[in-house]
Amino acid sequence: MSPVNSPVKAPIKAKRAPGAPRRMRPVDYERARLALMQQDPRLGAIIEQVGKCRLKVRRDGDLFSALCETITSQQLSTRVADVIYGRFCALCAPATHPTPEAVLALEVAQLRAAGLSGPKAAYVRALAERVSHGDLSLEALDVLPDDEVIEVLSSIKGIGRWSAQMILIFRLHRPDVWPIGDLGIVRGLERLHNLRKTPTPARLEKLGDVWRPYRSVAAWYLWAGAAL
Predict the structure, then answer these.
(1) I want to staple 179 with a disulfide (CB 3.0 to 4.6 A). Which of 18, 149, 165, 189 is the partner?
(2) Which string of b and e fits 131-160 if b means at least 16 CB within 10 Å?
(3) pLDDT above 60 (res 2)
């Protein structure tokens, strides 16, 4: 059979690991919103004011670019981070967002000139090398349980547990992530429960139990409620 007439083989997809949640869809976010309002009247009052959950699928870049943006933005104000990441993206043209190939084609000096610190420039290049060489499969993260995703992402220089949890919530759309290391979540719980002292990590974990299996959505409402 000639190559022209040969059937095209579909790419082999990684199998979803046991316990790995599927991505939340718009209908799932609505189901979560209604469930949370029934489970907890106090959070329900915030949900009533905020309205529908606006956690939507982002189409501006893939997981690699999301990790690059996360590394670039750390310890910076939103405005400054946006400016520096915009310069970083411009260096990767004609691609609209960083790709492993584009990053590896850049000199460290170019990344530094765009505003990345020395360590951040080294981190994004190390990430690009791992993905390019096949040492790190970002596509496989979609089928792994949350704890394994955190373990894999935390092995990337410049990415810690909090950053991995944000990727799980905002990019992989996992339903039950509970980022107790986030200051916004801590302050939100203090306001919700009228707490005078900052809760211990164990108490923070326990306070989130009532919102299982939708703690990611509950976290989003705590963040959104801060603006009320």
Answers:
(1) 165
(2) beeeebebeebbebebeebbebbeebebbe
(3) no
Q: How confident is the model at residue 123 (pLDDT cuts 50, 70, 90)?
A: very high
Domain boundaries in the chain?
26-53+176-225, 63-170
Question: Whole-angstrom Cα distance, residue 224 to residue 110?
Answer: 37
208 φ, ψ (degrees, to nearest 5):
-85, -10
The CATH number that domain 63-170 falls under is 1.10.340.30
pTM of the model: 0.86
According to CATH, what is the number of the domain 26-53+176-225?
A: 1.10.1670.40
Show the tokens assigned to 46: 């915030």
Region of 18 on the Ramachandran plot (φ > 0 left; ψ -120 to 50 alpha; else beta): beta
- Asked if 214 and 36 count as a contact pair (C-beta separation under 8 A), the reply is yes
The percent of residues above 70 in pLDDT, for the chain, comes to: 89
